[in-house]
Structure formats: C-alpha cells, structure tokens
Amino acid sequence: MAGVVARVQKHRESLRKAGMRPVQIWVPDTRRPGFAEECRRQSELLKNDPQEQQLLRFLNEAADREGWEA
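Now predict its structure.
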C-alpha cells in the first residue's frame, strides 16, 4: 500500500508543479431513490417557461458543434 500512496503523492506533486490544484465538489447522487422523479418534476416546471425557452435558443445558437456527430 505504501507504494500506491507514494505514486499518488508523486502524481499530485507533478500536477501542482504544472499549476493545478485539487478541488473537491459535491454533486447530486444520481443513484438516490427519487432522483429521476425530481428531475422530471423540475423539468416540467420549466417546460413552457419563456425565459427557459430564450436560454435554450441562445445556447443552441452559441453551441460550437463543428466536428461533433448528432
């Protein structure tokens, strides 16, 4: 186990030397019961919202899709 710890530490040090820093973020647990239902509920609230439609149009126009397959 000590070898693994040393390799991880060495890797992290090289990332820091390259100007990177570690960041911890917390995200919703998509495996949690009720997650999909809550996503659906929130999506339904926005379905006919004028501001949401405006934002979606803007994102569609601003998207750079060159080289991507649909």
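The chain has a mean pLDDT of 94.
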